[in-house]
Amino acid sequence: MRDKFTKTEKQVLLKHFSNLNDSVFSIITPKQVDRGALMSRYSRTDKSMRKIFLDEFVKNKSRGEEFYNKILIEYGDDSVAELGIGQIAIEGISNIAIKKIEDRRIGISYLEKSSRYVVWDKKINGEYKFYRDPTILNSKFADMYLNVCNFDFDFYSQSIKIMVKYLKEIYPIEKYVFLDSDDIEKPFYKIKNSHNLKLAQKVYERATLTKTLDILRFVLPASTLTNVGLTGNGRAFEYLLTILFESKLEEERILAQKIKRELDVTMKPFVKHSNDQYGIALQNYHTNIQECTKNIINKYFNHKINPRSVTKLVNYDKEISAMNKIVAAIIYKQCSGMSYYNILNYTKKLNSSLKNNIISEYIKLRSNRRQRPSRAFEMTEYTFDIITNYGIFRDLHRHRILTLERQLLTTNHGFVIPEEVKNADLDKEYKECMYGSKNLYRLLKPTIPFNAQYVVNFAYNYPFFINVNLREICHIIELRTLQQGQREYRELAQKLFLDIKAVHPNLSQIIKFANMKNYELERFESEKKIQNKKSPNKKIT
Predict the structure, then answer these.
(1) How far apart are CA 257 and CA 253, in angstroms?
(2) What beta strand segments (E) does 338-449 contain?
(3) CA 203, CA 166: separation in Å to the nearest integer?
(4) Could you say which of 259, 360, 384, 444 has the lowest number of CB atoms within 10 Å?
(5) What's the pTM value of the predicted model, to 2 decimals?
(6) Helices 234-245 and 250-271: crossing angle, nearest 10°?
(7) Which pLDDT tens digit goes with each residue over 327-377?
(8) Which phi and psi (to 5°) does residue 240 adopt?
(9) Rounded to whole angstroms, how far apart are CA atoms 120 and 113?
(10) Element (H, E) at 323
């Protein structure tokens, strides 16, 4: 039965809800605290939400905050903090701090400024955009730090035109085809229409510039400043703040203060425990975990463990075991009344060819990469030891549905030199950037290892491990092997696929759209499609 409202009540409600009569409506009341409190209050009464608002929130402007204080403090029900949503923009943040923020995988979504599509050669008031860490600048290494970072940016900036010129020489525009006004695809030099010529040149220029930035970004230091937008719920933000408040880096502690200040404007009750007695207790707990781990390492592990790392699949189920679990999970949903335990035991008795046939039927159903495997394929997992450069780690770090653990950024594992850098005769200065960073890192590490990370270039190899289920690794591999993807992370994703295929030759076939090709100008086809959408004549496809 629908509520009946007076004319005055309707006028009030329309400022806070999208409609008055439908069973589905948006909550548009401006205060995040009230939105969350309304939804939480909803679960504790038989009144409609609009009626709750009229009875409790119109009469008491502080009702939302009072409600949350009661629930969070008196009852300790932290889950209600997930009902409030905040959006924060952070500008001028280092690539060390941004990775600490993006380590929080659940409850917050991020959109970060790209190092593939944006040129990083601009100066502000005569200074390149890198973080000037106060701890380093107050040390005897201040001038060395500034010189090393400036040298990196100088090389990056001065090499852009050189690299673009080199790429145009080895990938000349004449190699590529475009549609002319007669809708026939032709080499560039045969295009007659002047409008189409301009469009083709624009696509080519953008594709070569993007590849240039892909190559040269490896020289950027981790101190490089970037921007990020965050959308998340109150509970996730509170945990993020707790982590940042306990940081060893001043930049991250200051960020915590600023983020909390801004969130207090819209969702103060949701984040109030981030640095109060409860937040400090949680911070101390995290510190104790770190100290306990250090003690265990000192007591039981040999400090001379070989630091050399390789990308390798180190843990996985036997394929027969993985297949049993997946087939049982497939069957379970349609077998009402049967337990998973009984279905699994039944599945184990089926012959292997029958189970392969079942998996094959599901493989056939996928017609594109966006049709992800069913959740049954989450029943088996893989653990990968991965080492790749920090620039590529930054891209892969964004995947959420997995466990990822990483270490401090160092110069201990060497660095990559793109072939294009060597062939364009830029390798001498490139190496000077790497060696300058390495020398400074070694001077900083003994006393300030966390701060020393700022000087390390994206080119330096960085070890981490992931534990991931088959459904998610399917998504990662198929996404990261797309043509327009960066070459190095495509090659890494291809390596992960081949490792899985070697141990699970049958199950790996569900990763149906892994692209095992290599490309010259990776962004070329994508740039053509983008230009096609923008062009009213749609002359390029």
Answers:
(1) 7
(2) 381-389, 403-406
(3) 17
(4) 360
(5) 0.90
(6) 150
(7) 999 999 899 899 999 999 999 999 999 999 999 999 999 999 999 999 999
(8) -60, -45
(9) 11
(10) helix 319-332
